[in-house]
Design goal:
- The chain is mostly helical.
- The protein has one domain.
- The protein is built from five helices and no strands.
- It is elongated.
Length: 128
């Protein structure tokens, strides 16, 4: 099967773009590396997924901090502690599923955008 036009194959002997994009999600520090070293920083597909991987990580941290604060507040109210037993595992399950989906879409050469940060990541990817 051929690759989609969005993800041209690597011509300089490096990783294929879909593998590089997947690794950016799997090993977060590689997303930063792909934005710095050539030929990866010249590839729009890799740049998009690198920015989105970084954005996903930042959003996960922000969401975790917000939920920690909310947990502290909810924890003060007697009887509402049970909500936290359900809320935290659901959050991490959702994050895990989205993370797997992002890696799958990258591997399949698709530029699937996350709702809030996807457009920003696409704009950044187009700046070379």
């Amino acid at each position: 099967m051929g690759q989609s036009p969005q993800a041209p194959s690597s011509s300089s002997g490096g990783l294929e773009p879909n593998i590089a994009a997947l690794l950016g999600y799997l090993i977060g520090i590689l997303a930063i590396v792909w934005l710095v070293i050539e030929p990866y920083n010249k590839n729009r597909f890799i740049r998009f997924h690198a920015f989105q991987a970084i954005g996903f990580f930042v959003a996960t941290v922000v969401l975790s901090i917000a939920l920690t604060i909310l947990s502290f507040i909810i924890g003060m109210v007697p009887g509402l502690n049970l909500i936290l037993i359900v809320l935290w595992p659901l959050l991490w399950l959702a994050i895990f599923i989205v993370w797997l989906l992002l890696m799958f879409k990258a591997y399949k050469n698709e530029m699937w955008k996350l709702p809030v940060i996807g457009n920003f990541c696409e704009q950044q990817a187009n700046k070379v």
